Amino acid sequence: MVFEAMTPLERMAAYNKGAVIDRLPCVPIVGNTAARVIGVKVSEFQGNGKLIAKAQIAAYRRFRYDVIRIFTDLYGQAEAMGAKVYYPADETAYLDVPAISNIADIRSLQPADPYKDGNLPQHLEAMKLTLEAVGKEVPVTGAITGPFTNAAFLIGTENLVRLVGRNPQAVHDLCQLSLETALRYAKAIVDIGCTPSLTDAMSSGTIISPKQFQEFSYPYIKRLIHYIHSRGKTVTLHICGKTDKLWDLMVDAGADSISIDNVANLLEAKVKVGHRVRLMGNIAPSEVMLQGTPHDVRVAVNQCVQQAYDSPKGYIVASGCSLPTETPFVNIDAMMDAVRKIGDPS
After folding, report:
1. For the chain, what is the mean pLDDT?
2. What residue spans define the domains of the chain?
3. Which one, 18, 193, 224, 226, has least CB within 10 Å?
4. Can you give the residue ranges of the Uroporphyrinogen decarboxylase (URO-D) domain (predicted)?
């Protein structure tokens, strides 16, 4: 096991106060790669909170990164509301059939109960067990899918994008239902003692315009973040793809930290919103972490640190999105070793 002068909780607390730290916080966003750490198939996580916890605890102890994120896929909330999710034998799940195919069926949808519906109870169990095992040394977060993205999984992404122009009220209805599920799930996560972490992949500037984001995504994210803040927790918000025209809105919604995808420019983010929010990112999950060499990883870490270490509200070295399942362990090691070698660059 690697010896470090600080635990992740100690490191983050010192960093928040502007005190001396041994190194920058670092978060290779480990999702289903954790299955490889304990030698199980990804599909074995389905309905098995104990196994998810075992894998995530083992991955943290193996790599010693700074945040554990309980996550397997984005579809848990939609599945709990009636969507059908396909679980391949040994890869990340994907949406098979949306909960509804016709807007007339919206009235049949109900917000999910995170203690009863779908796999949400298993993820809550994983959070609880992980927190009990290592929560005194590392932050444990639970992934929540943003309302607009969850709405896309309820009716299908193509249908939702069409409805944005043809029937905006239906989109709002789906987002409201999704928000209610997200609020219930957030409450359950906080009640355990964990911190919600938000991902709103379909709110990307690659999919909808900034104007559409402001109408259909922003109000629901803001209400969700407001609730989480009311429970005394901070919020990291990740939106995939191109988000440069959304950064100010993401901050306005209340995010304490924004996770920058690798297709966005980290230096530009520092200049534009670094004085308002902590930045996190943005090493390429596929091109560098999955397909690159340890040398490539070290180069990418150094480039990101050079660009953002002096961001006024702080910077966390991280992958631009969740790591692919088959990410080589040597590359995750290289990421962690690189930040240890850099230390405190301030």
Report:
1. 97
2. 8-342
3. 18
4. 8-341
